[in-house]
Every structure is written in C-alpha cells, then in structure tokens.
Amino acid sequence: xxxxxxxxxxxxxxxxxxxxxxxxxxxxxxxxxxxxxxxxxxxxxxxxxxxxxxxxxxxxxxxxxxxxxxxxxxxxxxxxxxxxxxxxxxxxxxxxxxxxxxxxxxxxxxxxxxxxxxxxxxxxxxxxxxxxxxxxxxxxxxxxxxxxxxxxxxxxxxxxxxxxxxxxxxxxxxxxxxxxxxxxxxxxxxxxxxxxxxxxxxxxxxxxxxxxxxxxxxxxxxxxxxxxxxxxxxxxxxxxxxxxxxxxxxxxxxxxxxx
Amino acid sequence: xxxxxxxxxxxxxxxxxxxxxxxxxxxxxxxxxxxxxxxxxxxxxxxxxxxxxxxxxxxxxxxxxxxxxxxxxxxxxxxxxxxxxxxxxxxxxxxxxxxxxxxxxxxxxxxxxxxxxxxxxxxxxxxxxxxxxxxxxxxxxxxxxxxxxxxxxxxxxxxxxxxxxxxxxxxxxxxxxxxxxxxxxxxxxxxxxxxxxxxxxxxxxxxxxxxxxxxxxxxxxxxxxxxxxxxxxxxxxxxxxxxxxxxxxxxxxxxxxxxxxxxxxxxxxxxxxxxxxxxxxxxxxxxxxxxxxxxxxxxxxxxxxxxxxxxxxxxxxxxxxxxxxxxxxxxxxxxxxxxxxxxxxxxxxxxxxxxxxxxxxxxxxxxxx
Lengths: 259, 369
Known about the structure:
The complex is a heterodimer. Chain A is an alpha/beta fold. Chain A has 9 helices and 12 strands. The mean pLDDT of chain A is 89. In chain B, 79% of the residues lie in helices and 0% in strands. In chain B, helix 4 runs antiparallel to helix 12 (267-289), helix 4 (63-98) crosses helix 13 (295-307) and helix 9 runs antiparallel to helix 12.
C-alpha cells in the first residue's frame, strides 16, 4: 500500500525572495498529478521539497509521507519509497545504460531477488531495452531521458511508491513525450503516485488526473486538468491570452496562444 | 516471435559479460603482480635464478642470497605493493568525489600535503627541538628521536594529507558541486605551497635530512627495511578496508550529490569519510616513500574502461593493479641504470605525465570546466 504524500504550510525563501508561499497539498497515490505554472513559479522548488531535498534558503512547514515527516524517515527506507528524476540528471564516468539503471537498485541491495530483472523490466517499460549496452554520453537527449526514467523506475517498490519528475518531457520529441506520458499514466493506474512538473498544458490536459497550478510560489488552482485549465486561469496565471482547443468529442487537445 | 533468447534478457547478458571481463582482468593483474614480485626479488646487482630464489626464500641456500632477498628486497616489495594499492584506490575514491578521472592524489596536492607533514616530523621538528634546548639529551636522544620520528612521520603525513584534501574539497567543490578546473588549480597551488615548505626544510636540513627530503620530493623506495614497512602497511590496509566499505555509497555518487541522496546516501558524510580514508592511505604511504605520482591516475582510468565504474570491482582491481604497477616500476628503477638507482617516482611520472596529457587533450570542453 503506497503511503500518501502531503505538505502543509510549506514556505521557502532565499534571502528576502519567497520561493514558496504557504503551500498545503495532500497527494493521493495511484494518481498522475502535474505541477504547472510559468517560469519561476516555484515548481521545481516545490518538487525538491516533496523529494526531501535540502534547500539553499530557509524552509518552513512540513512534508510528510505516510503522516511522518521526511526528515524522520531513515534515508534508506525513504529511498525505497520514492524515486526522483531531476531536470538535468548527472551520470559520471560514461556509465552504460544498464549500469545506470542498476544504480536504482542500490537501496534494495540484499533485500530482493536479482537486480538484473528489475533493471531489465525498467528498461523495457521505457522502451529502451535496445539501448542497454550503450554508454550515456553516446545517447541522444531523449534516449538519455528515458534511461534516467528507467533508473527511477528500477528504484520503485513493488507496491507502487512515489515517482517525482522535473520536466520529464523537456528533452523528448512529440512521439517520445507522448509515450513517456502514457507510461506515467499507466504507472499511476497501477498504484504509483506520479508527480511531474510539466510546461506543456496540452500534455497535462491529455494525460494527467490532477493539475496543481503554482504562481509566484503560491498554489492558485488544484483539480482535474479539464476543470482547472480554463481560459480565465490561463490568462491570469500565464498572463497570456490563450484558448483551449477541443476535439470533436469535447475532449481538451491543448492550450493554444491566441493571435 | 523469433526474438533470440539472449536479446530478451540483455541486462543479464551484459552483466555476465562484464563479470567475465572482470575475472579476466583479475587473472591478468594477479599474473602481472606475481611476475613483478618475482622480478623484484630476483633482479638487481645480485641476480638470482629461480632456483636460487627458491632456496633463499626457504632458507636453504647461500646466506648472502637469503639476506639480500629477505632483508633488502622483500620489504621493498611489500612497501611497493602496499603503496601502489593505496595510491590507486585513493585515486579511485578521489575521482568518485570529483566525478572526473583527473583527480590523482599526487596531482591534486594530497600527496604533497603528506610530504609536508613528513618533512615537518623528520626535519623541522627535530631542528625545532634542538633549538628549544633539547640539546642535553642529544647523544642518547638520537635513537629516541628516531623512534619518535617513526611515529610522528606517518602521523603528521596523515595530518598534512587530511589538511590538503579538506582544502581541495572545499575549493574544488564550491556550492556542493565538483568543479574540475577549480580542483586542478587548487592542486597546482597546493603542490606549489608544499614545494615551498619542503624547500624551507631543505634549506635548513643537514645532509641526512637532505637525502630524506630529496627522496620525498622524487618518490623513492630505497632504504626500505622491515621496520619502515609496518606503519604504512597497517594504515594503508585500514584505508583500503574503509574505502571498500563505502563502495555502494560511492556508486550512488555517480548520480551526483542529489542523486546519491535520493538513493539514501548522505553525501556530506560520504565526502568526509572518503576524504579521511584517502588521506590516511596516501599520507601513510607518502611518509614512507615520498610523492609517487600518476599511479592513482593511470590505473583507475584504465581499469574503469575495462570493468566499468562500479566500485565493488573497481576498488579491489585498482588496488591490485596499483600494486603490480609500482612493484614493476621499482624493478625498472633498480635495474635500469646500474649501479645507481632511479627514484621510482621519476619513473611513474615518465609513464604517467604523457598519459595525463593525453587525457586532457581528448577531454571534451565540458569535462574540464
């Protein structure tokens, strides 16, 4: 059973600049939540706080997993409960893709059956089995992004856990981005709590179960993407005159800037 | 579906292939170390045939041969092997902290810090004691001073190496992230500072101290006896065990500080512990042999290409490779220009400096910034 992840009264600032203002959200497992907002709205900062990453500034309020503050978790136990895909992941020394994915099994050493199976399954899920032998520097941006995602998947517990991603589709072309987003939906459906920072509102509309909109560090909207991302909110938050395009069945296709 | 079975399980296959490669490399390194050890014991001014060597080791042959092997060559073999192992494993660990193959303990000033500590213990400290009026005990105090230096040498070398490594990490990793240009520049400055401090010691030293200091700056194994082998061996052994215990956290650090933390590793603590173990191993070896460069650069880099960057295999294989390389280098140093003996550090630099230049030349722009 995947625990619930929540933050209450979360504020963060660097010097006099507030990055987050009193954000309180309770995230439910088995849901694909997306974090939206203009540049500098505090999306990555919030995701880092949810992941238990330290801040360069000051942070107040609490992030809890299963009702327990992240700081009170044993680091190894926490590593077996959530995985993170950063915006620009690091991988030293020209690791081969399969070695990188294997690193996701480090928190599980000695606790589970052969790590190769998990690494194998993770690579297959992101459609990167054929890249297993390649070294990271030889991969394209999109290929590397998928391998890093596979590393995080290999880290997740069998019952689901939490997967936090900062702009997982930024380096991907259209088809690959769709593929990753469908994978994230599937993961959520199978019990993983997925939280992803996205820039493309259309992707959020098409795939996410829940949209959280941040502006200037404050949560300004929270709900089903199709309810939240209306013309008024988009205009207010992004300060852009935009409209939502719908398909024949009335499903949202994306947000298009108006001319 | 006509997918071949192997393609259905590439990770297990790749892992099996890598394991096979590791076993091959292990066998080759063991053979190399064995060969080098045999050469170290047999070759020299008095060259022994395998039969003579065997009789000398079993105590049956010519007593002169036995004395040469057990009292002169064997301790040298042990110190060369231990030193090479500590330097190469130290290189592996430092490179993991900087995520860059250029972090060699000698190149970035850790060894130089150790040399300053050792020089302080054996030259500056006794001079200071004499100046402070410890003179009356001089005649009887020479032996006591020697014993004191035997302990103070490794201890201060360790302190010097810790200080240099701490400074290196602070300057070379600003904002919690490694920066290779800063690391190398800090290393240049640390080496220059250490050179200047040892220069002061050189200026003040008597002829005996002068020989010791020259040995440190060039890196030499000459004059090794069983008495001088013990402390560095113990310290290096401890350091190797300490680093081995950090193998999985060091793997996690391949994903950077944030990545390591997400895998349950405390990066700050890992940096501290790694620094201490590297400084202990390298400092103790430097106190006994002086600065031997590039072993910690050539061996880890070559092995990383062969067996991958995971530390479970890399650390022990690098230790083995470093041991073999330094023993082999010492053999060449002893027999290349008879009757004199080259400092072994000169040889490793002759081999390693071009290798370093090659690494720098082929590095992509981003890797050195």
